[in-house]
Structure to design on (204 residues):
């Protein structure tokens, strides 16, 4: 048995401004740093000791992982960075305010771009596209790590984590559109032979 911990990065500055972020390297807001710290403190209260840590190549996820590890007294543990765990690429929507985009294109169209499984925004990725790059990395690198180590931490993004959770929880293409992963809240999967046998969410 091992534990796989998934954490969505804390609020970023563009999250706070309600903008599509995607691959833009935006730092955490003060609130996001606090969310990461509180998530790490909840893990510390569980007596967690991380053996391997993974993150994307984007600073908001890297810093979230670092803050969580510091809360565990493991600030010197290296995080393996992988672009495959990066957030979904939003194409022409990148940097735009979500409310203003809805006014321009209509709420229904923007909702389809944001929440459908296989309809990408102009020039961007759908969740299906994100899954096509994130899941092979997860299955080739992270799942094997759960067989070798007691505790594996992944600090990533809303959509790359939705791709992983879709696989772990066996969620359908239709139902995954309704899944929202909160920022800074650790999800703990108890793993056995590469498959989840239990799940807990450490909410405040």
């Amino acid at each position: 048995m091992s534990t796989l911990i998934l954490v969505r990065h804390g609020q970023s500055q563009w999250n706070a401004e309600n903008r599509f972020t995607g691959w833009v390297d935006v730092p955490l807001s003060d609130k996001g740093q606090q969310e990461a710290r509180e998530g790490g403190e909840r893990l510390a209260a569980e007596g967690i000791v991380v053996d391997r840590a993974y993150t994307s190549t984007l600073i908001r996820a890297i810093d979230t992982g670092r803050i969580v590890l510091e809360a565990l007294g493991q600030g010197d543990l290296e995080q393996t960075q992988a672009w495959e765990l990066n957030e979904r690429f939003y194409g022409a929507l990148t940097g735009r305010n979500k409310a203003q985009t809805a006014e321009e294109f209509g709420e229904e169209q923007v909702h389809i771009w944001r929440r459908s499984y296989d309809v990408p925004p102009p020039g961007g990725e759908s969740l299906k596209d994100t899954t096509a790059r994130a899941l092979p990395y997860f299955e080739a690198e992270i799942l094997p790590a759960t067989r070798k180590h007691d505790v594996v931490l992944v600090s990533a993004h809303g959509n790359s984590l939705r791709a992983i959770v879709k696989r772990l929880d066996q969620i359908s293409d239709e139902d995954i559109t309704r899944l929202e992963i909160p920022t800074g809240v650790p999800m703990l999967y108890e793993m056995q032979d590469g498959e989840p046998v239990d799940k807990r969410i450490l909410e405040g």
Notes: The chain has seven helices and six strands. The chain has a mean pLDDT of 97. Helices lie at 13-16, 30-45, 59-71, 98-105, 107-115, 127-148, 158-169. The longest helix spans residues 127-148.
